[in-house]
Amino acid sequence: MQIGRLVIGLNGLLSTPAVSCIIRKIKAIGGIILTASHNPGGPGGDFGIKFNVANGDSVEVYLQLLRNIFDFSAIKGLLTGPDQLKIHIDAMNGVMGPYVRRILCDELGAPVNSAVNCVPLEDFGGRPPEPNLTYATSLVDAMKGGEFGFGAAFDADGVRPPNQHHNL
Ligand SMILES: *[C@@H]1O[C@H](CO)[C@@H](O)[C@H](O)[C@H]1NC(C)=O
């Protein structure tokens, strides 16, 4: 088998759902993802390799896919304006940060301060990017403040449904 073309996300960053989206879009056989999620390997348990096949570009291609699935103008209406739903999204310094910024803030109009820990870091800022009650305590604390109507935290590669907290 020969490789005719390589597609790599900007700065090497792609969430797992975004990889699946690209694989389908460009009709590739599959894609190799270097991610710790779920099956951690390596000395620090923070490295793993996944191979995704064609069942599933970077932020922009994924954004186009989401535009076809969700009613962006309705969500934008919800997140902006005087009666806006205030949200708190914690990307836990994993790969979802650029997606959260681009899609929720730039595209859907959520205020920039709605999204925290959006810079992907090699050590995820020192806490495992596990969006549960042990590690996403800052989300829990933020929600307890009562200011936000919706909060969510993402795991490192954006594959697991985020932990969600509703105050509605
Ligand atoms: C959170 O995830 C970690 C790592 O998987 C686990 O050890 C811990 O028990 C989990 N905490 C909760 C509250 O589920």
In short:
With 168 residues, this protein is α/β, with parallel strands linked by helices.
User: What would you give as the CATH superfamily of the largest domain?
Assistant: Alpha-D-Glucose-1,6-Bisphosphate, subunit A, domain 3
Helical proportion, percent range? 25-40%
Q: Supply the helix-strand structural class.
A: alpha/beta
CATH architecture descriptor text of the largest domain: 3-Layer(aba) Sandwich
3D architecture notes:
The chain is α/β, with parallel strands linked by helices. It folds into 2 domains: 52 residues, no CATH class; 96 residues, Alpha-D-Glucose-1,6-Bisphosphate, subunit A, domain 3 (Alpha-D-Glucose-1,6-Bisphosphate, Chain A, domain 3, 3-Layer(aba) Sandwich). Helix content is 29%, strand content 14%. It contains 5 helices and 6 strands, in the order αββααβαβαββ. A 4-stranded mixed beta sheet has the order 4-3-5-6. Helix 1 packs across helix 2. 2-acetamido-2-deoxy-beta-D-glucopyranose binds next to loops.
What topology emerges from the helices and strands here?
Layout: H1 16-25, E1 30-34, E2 49-53, H2 59-69, H3 72-79, E3 87-90, H4 97-107, E4 115-116, H5 137-144, E5 150-153, E6 163-166
Parallel strand pairs: 3-4, 3-5
Antiparallel strand pairs: 1-2, 5-6
Helix pairs in contact: 1-2
The structure holds 2-acetamido-2-deoxy-beta-D-glucopyranose.
Family: Belongs to the phosphohexose mutase family.
Domain Alpha-D-phosphohexomutase alpha/beta/alpha: 7-58, 62-158
Protein name: Phosphoglucomutase-5
